[in-house]
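User: Hand in any protein.

Assistant:
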Amino acid sequence: MTDYQAYPNESAYLEALFPESNEIKSMRAYAEENHIPVIVPEVARTLKMIAALKKPVHILELGTAIGLSTLTLAQAAPAAKITSIEINEKRYADARRFLASYLVSGQVQLIQGDIRSEVFWASAGLKDQVYDLIFIDAAKGQYATLADRLWQHVSPGGLMVFDDVLQHGWVATLAYPSHRQKTAVLRLRQFLEDVAASGRGHVLNIDDGVLLLIKE
């Protein structure tokens, strides 16, 4: 009889069953040490599956952080050209360093800028590009605005993927800890209700909620 190992929970078992690359593990350790939020392994596996099924040629990412999700997409879709945008200068610099050391910087165009700024969108050179996959892990209160702005840039059959749409469960419970989170939570609630009414998207109950918007 095989001597099976017991794991403390399902997440630990799945992480052992589908281990991340050494590069991703190194970045995840750095993020944990420096308290930088990055996608959890469950979301990373979802992104990899989407990229494997979709085989995107052009990918746009809003919210690079240190580049962990960027590298996940690059490894899953090695033929894709990825444009990734990060507002924080330190995280942008970290992403450049990591992606250069892991030899995917030629595949990835990193841009440092504020996606909330009209000046940024006018100067970033993105207005004429169409993307097969757009991954958004940025200002949660801006998700509806970003969906409206970028929908015309999604190719037919393309996807928009939004991370953390349930915001620690606050969108469902409305039990946000302080008034500071109220606006973002209520905007997310309205955004998800509009998506549900449109019939063009679905929320996966993974980690903090992953929304998929599909352009038919």
Q: What stands out?
A: The beta strands are 58-62, 81-86, 108-112, 131-136, 154-163, 201-204, 210-214. The CA atoms of residues 62 and 136 lie 5 Å apart.
